[in-house]
Amino acid sequence: MTLLEIKDGQYVLDGQPFRILSGAIHYFRVVPEYWKDRLQKLKACGFNTVETYIPWNFHEPKEGEFVFDGMADVASFIQLAHEMGLYVIVRPSPYICAEWEFGGLPAWLLQNSDMGLRCYDPAYLAKVDRYYDVLIPKLVPLLSTNGGPILAVQVENEYGSFGNDTSYLEYLRDGLVARGVDVLLFTSDGPTDEMLIGGTIDGVHATVNFGSRVAESFAKFREHREHDPLMVMEYWNGWFDHWMEPHHVREASDVGQVLDDMLKAGSSINMYMFHGGTNFGFYNGANHPEKYEPTVTSYDYDAMLTEWGDLTSKYEAVREVFEKHGIKPGCSLPDPISKCTYGQVTLSECSPLFDELDTLSTPVKQAYIQPMEKFGQSYGFILYSTWVKGPRKGQKLYIQDVRDRAQVFLDGKLLGVVERWNPQPLDISVSKEGARLDILVENMGRVNYGPFLRDPKGIMEGVRVDNQFQYGWTIRTLPLEPASLSELSFTEGGEQVQGPAFYRGYVDVERIGDTFLRVDGWKKGVAWVNGFNLGRYWEAGPQQALYIPGPLLHKGRNEIILFELHGTPEEAIITLVDQPDLGSTALLDERHLNFVVEDESV
Questions:
Q1: Is the pTM of this model over 0.85?
Q2: Which domains does the chain have, with CATH numbers?
Q3: Distance between CA atoms of 12 and 7, rounded to whole angstroms?
Q4: What are the catalytic residues?
Q5: pLDDT tens for residues 204-220?
Q6: Does the keyword section mention Ubl conjugation (predicted)?
């Protein structure tokens, strides 16, 4: 039996002082075929531990239906780390943040508008208990006390940034213990009074998250926890990106200097992120500090490894600091993963969205508008349709509280776009015969952090022409799951479609390697390769290419589908290249690296 304990203010493992040198790798952001490559690079740098969140919505995407295979096979990821000689820290807290959709909470929780989130609400805790009754038994055999690699388990994540319900934290702690978790339990919070007061509980080890100002952050932590070992559970060595912003970068020398300061202070560390990976599918989150800011598909994070797993200058900077402190590589590096250019692919087959509505959905008719969660939908798009009576001239169309981006069509022609972050009304005129109004709303990712965490999608309040609400709607859910895409009817060639449509083409592959999908000239949409949802693209940037891991391809013919919202370029061509493009860059400012002012924390 191996047990990580706290004695005399330090970590002790099997009776010997132990420093945790951990790096974050999220198994759910990396295809399983590459788990070993990423873990080997972690160990080769000198780390002895890997840390991962466990996202509830990834494992229970539909209520009562659990998924633990493929990319969701968390037990296999942990066992692989064990076989490679690494310890593991797991963070299965119901909420994870992680710039992940809804912070890991399943969207179906929002069907109940009265349910409290992340608090001692029996209705919410009953859902957590059912999930933990399935998840935790998969982790218990992998605890270090049972011969496995898991040294520590998180109770909740940065809870002090959200609430102060101590009874809720105690309930989660007691639930873990009752289910057999007998390793070190911990919380993690930012280095402010408010966060450390709200997020910690007596008898549970506290850790701290920050990216700079080492002495200042540790001093604040010590005001609250005099005898706990110093542990930076999240050392933010990079940052994530939002659409319509530049790609965030941080100097490698600065990352190395801050790490050196942490190690000199005697701290253990978890590098967040060691390897970021990708927000495949519709799993990107969003932030809402002052306005809604959706996160891009890439979770490159400007980390020690790129999104596609290559070593960066930060890897070398950390390796140098480790050597300075006598920390040696644990193994050799793996062979490089090949990258391939497959050239241009013409998406010559087309399937307009409005021609395929009956294939993709079943209409629901009701008087008033509701968000997608009320129809059992979590991700994708939702279509609201009605008949507007005329005549109307020179009026304004208002979508009251849209989440997140709506394309408005009047008799099949685009009237305009209404965005959550720019909710301007549209001019509308209707003849005396009336007109059909279609509103296609895209869920661009639920808020994953802060007070606006409750973030249902679609249209919240209703649609008005001037001050008159419109009633009598036909509503179609469009989650765009792979099974429904396989039922689409495509037509070869034909005239260009200006509205939303699916485009399909094929690429023949002889040599398999990683590649990058460029969509130059396309506007905004979603891409699939062989039925796998690669995520969103958008000309707004900064991301200009989608990463395709080689294991998603196979020798022979491979299918590529784009759901383009705004019509094709002159030629419906995409390009598969061996080099990515993360767009314009900008150095991180201090606001991103520490909780400088509590009410401005990100």
A1: yes
A2: 18-324+333-339+587-600 (3.20.20.80), 343-351+492-578 (2.60.120.260), 357-478 (2.60.120.260)
A3: 7
A4: 158, 234
A5: 999 999 999 999 999 99
A6: no
